[in-house]
Specification:
The protein is 31% helix and 29% strand. It has 289 residues and is α+β, with helices and mostly antiparallel strands. Strand 7 and strand 8 form a beta hairpin. The protein starts with a helix and ends with a strand. The relative contact order is 0.17.
């Protein structure tokens, strides 16, 4: 766990070259690595240069999803190929039939995986509100309310998010303790980061989780997960929730507002219709193990 800052710096260096900006936060790795189901010793690997110092390569595997990076100054030395091979071996050992990893479209890592035979599994987009813009206000139906989530709401938030994401994601349900590790256990978490919509009976039927990125540059409110229960869709709940979630971010210093979606969800058009624009494209490339 003590390597989290160094790994974050490594990934940030690669992002800066490939994307022109840094989006990774140390909290991303801490919250992932501290999940009860995650074994840091067997599901991560690091590469250090002969001279010691900071790591120059990193990879992790979580079921059929991988994450890898090589410092720009140490690329084209076979490190990425070695990490890709390790990810396949790790996924195979854990019983996953495939391993995939998200890479910025056209990046050095994307080109390497394509060369190694990885196919595009799905496409993801990061979207941002233009400067000065806001998501159009959407009134909730009668009897529905949006508010900050309370701790006693978290099991319902987990259920709504997992039910919705599992409609298109091929994986097991995330254990509740893992969910909490990445929610309330995330460094910097504040209760206002989770917003919910309740129905006339007072049940949680939509939820959003926000991260506030304050690590240099403009403060960014990033909606990490947003979901509406199937039987309550097409009523404007997601848009109303997005309005309130971004407003909460703005009230706490955010001046940038972002989220991401991918081609499995069919939600890209929704976010574009409320005024958000694509700022980067990521390809999730995968290969059988």
């Amino acid at each position: 766990m003590s390597d989290s800052a160094a790994i974050t710096a490594l990934v940030a260096a690669e992002e800066l070259v490939e994307l022109g900006e840094v989006s990774i936060e140390e909290a991303d790795y801490i919250s992932d690595w501290q999940r009860p189901s995650f074994d840091l010793a067997s599901q991560t690997i690091g590469i250090w240069s002969d001279s010691g110092g900071e790591p120059v390569g990193f990879a992790m595997v979580d079921n059929d999803r991988g994450d890898a990076a090589v410092h720009p100054e140490h690329q084209r030395r076979g490190l990425g190929t070695a990490l890709a091979a390790w990810m396949r071996e790790c996924a195979r050992a854990n019983g996953a039939p495939v391993i995939g990893a998200p890479m910025p479209q056209g990046s050095a890592a994307d080109r390497l995986l394509e060369k190694l035979g990885y196919h595009v599994r799905w496409t993801s987009w990061v979207l941002q509100l233009p400067d000065g813009a806001t998501v159009p206000q959407r009134d909730l139906p009668a009897g529905y309310h949006v508010r900050e989530a309370h701790a006693e709401d978290y099991p319902a938030v987990w259920t709504v998010i997992e039910d919705a994401f599992l409609e298109w994601s091929v994986r097991e349900r995330e254990p509740y303790d893992d969910f909490l590790a990445r929610l309330s256990g995330r460094p910097g978490f504040e209760p206002w980061h989770v917003r919910v919509v309740t129905d006339p009976a007072g049940e949680v039927v939509a939820a959003a989780q926000l991260h506030l990125n304050e690590d240099g540059g403009p403060v960014c409110a990033y909606v990490d997960r947003l979901a509406t229960a199937r039987e309550h869709r097409n009523r404007g709940l997601a848009q109303a929730l997005l309005v309130h979630t971004f407003a909460a971010g703005a009230a706490n210093g955010a001046v940038r507002f972002e989220l991401s979606t991918d081609s499995r969800t069919g939600a890209l058009g929704l976010y574009e219709r409320v005024g958000m624009s694509v700022t980067s494209v990521w390809l999730n490339r995968a290969i059988e193990v």
